[in-house]
Known about the structure:
Number of helices: 0
Largest sheet: 5 strands, antiparallel
Shape: globular
Order of helices and strands: EEEEEEEEEEEE
Radius of gyration: 15 Å
Distance between the termini: 29 Å
Number of domains: 1
Amino acid sequence: MYKHIPLLFLCCSISTAHAQVDTILWLVDNLNEIGGHSVQILGNPTVIETEIGFAVEFDGIDDGLIVDGNPMAGATTAFTVEIIFKPYSGGEVEQRFLHCQQDNDNRILIELRNNADENWSLDTFIKSGSSSQAL
């Protein structure tokens, strides 16, 4: 079993038409609540201490957290998603570590792709209404 992707925090900045910026910060540093929302635990993720604080560590196979909330709720014009994480080598080829979905027409997916050299690359997909973009 490989350990994979300790996740420290998820930060979303949402801009509105009035140039007001609201920042939503979700620290993923415990298994009880994230961003004030309840958490459903999948598998056996663990809380670890890192050089910059506590983080949740996932095994890269069947660990996960389902948060009863959406940090992107209310995003109407522009947003930024920032994630600090440390992927370990090994593990599955495709690792989805963020999936935010409001309905069938709006979602954000962020995944890692591991290659044969045990290096990774970012794979991102954003869908809003009838528009979509893979990055």
